[in-house]
Design goal:
heterodimer; A: about 150 residues; alpha+beta; Sufe protein. Chain: A; three-stranded antiparallel sheet; about 40% helix; B: about 400 residues; Aspartate Aminotransferase, domain 1; Aspartate Aminotransferase, domain 2; four-stranded antiparallel sheet; 13 strands; disordered N terminus
Amino acid sequence: MAEQFNAYTKEVLKRFTNPKHFGEIKNPDGVGQVGNPVCGDVMKIYLKIDKKTEKIKDIKFQTFGCVSAIASSDALCELAKGKTISEAKKITNKAIVDKLEGLPSIKIHCSVLGANGLKKAIEDYEFKTGKISKKSERYDDEDGSCEGNCAIAG
Amino acid sequence: MEVNMLFNKQKSIYLDNAATTSVDKEVVEAMIPYFSEKYGNASSQHLIGQEAKRALEESREIIAKSIGAKRDEIIFTGSGTEANNFVLKGLFFANKDNKKNHIITTKIEHDCILNACKWLETQGAKVTYLNVNNEGFIDLNELKKSITPETLIVSVIHGNNEIGTIQDLKEIGKICKERGVHFHTDACQSYTKTDIDVNKQNLDFVTLNAHKIHGPKGVGALFIRKGIKIIPLLHGGGHEFGLRSSTENVPGIVGFAKSVRIAKESNIKHMEKLRDKLIEGILKIPNTQLNGPRDKRLCNNINVCFNNIEGEAIGGFLDSYGISSSTGSACSSHSLEPSHVLKAIGRTHVQINSSVRLSISKFTTDEEIDYVLEILNKIVDKLRKMSPIK
């Protein structure tokens, strides 16, 4: 009854209050950091990858952010764990929103941050293992130039 | 499981009293007869109408006395926002032909003052927005220097809604009197919590409202010193001395007066004690900073920056434990802009995003503060472990 007035779904609140995948991976195979503390969200994704199967063995996040940012990070990790690199690359922000059973429209940017964080971490892995020669700069918005508008722009 | 508490809140600790307060049961009781028994229109000449009129005027007297004003210097409005708009716009338009088009206000006003000023700038007003120091106090010398022969009014918020800073109305009033400019204060947050005396403080206009002091929503009041010409916002049947037409909200006004009557000095002492306990408890958590001053602070306001974690995440966690708080963060659902008040006291974007406001009331208990501190310690630790920023 009260839920329909609540800005967040049960799934968002569950993942926010009890995230399963937060933490740091020592000696990760790939790391991706996106966002900017000025805007209010920073997400760091750590990957451990099975070199033979190219499957994500472990994935963890650290997030400075709001309820939706933390829940999105946790949902992303859940979606990516056990997937191959090529499968994981296809994870969209919409998949994160679906996993969370919805996000308030004003918070969709948090799911975008999640999807980008994973892409960036995978890129880091591919760069380190020589699969790509250059990292794209698409997700690099942590240079401090942000004026606090990413919440809208994201 | 924690998440269950989200939906079957065992505890409900309301620490957002700067947003609004619960209506005191005594206030509700005072209001009830004016809905279905004494429901008259205060403008009607018959007995039922006159009964309403009497209640209206008695209420006006109570509000007037509480700030040292006369009965006919109080106008009831529909909100604090309306009263603030009325002062600035009404006075500006009343002085359109005498070259007095300069308004002085501060950078830490409520949005209704700032946005009314911005709109008045499109109508030919010149506005000076005074700076504040890192505790939120204006500089009296800057004020003096800002006054010009064109200055019409100085409008300064009494108790700040976000960081609790209480400005020195007496000193500001003295300057305004010396320089012959009108003086207005928005006292929505400070009313019944700290002294307001329109004569000692040389005030020409004071904005008050009911719902921050355990009265009903939808009722405000404006003190207008006798003899000052002001143009009404609402034209109509000539209610409220011709300054604010609309059939008076008698139950609401009666409730407003009741909330003023039951306000007590001991409530202030109670809130001050709990405020200090909460502030001291929070500041024991490493890497926290108080926003706003320790002294000359509203008795119910606490605003703290928990470095390296996001304010809204703290708010979300507190909510899961049944504790209502508020953030000045860019993430707060209404506005994506970071707090202009925290910006004005020199906080960085990151610090603003990490700040939380807790505002107590006369109903807050010592046990509740203990519980809030226990929970805060827990969740700040958890969120800091989750944060990539160290």
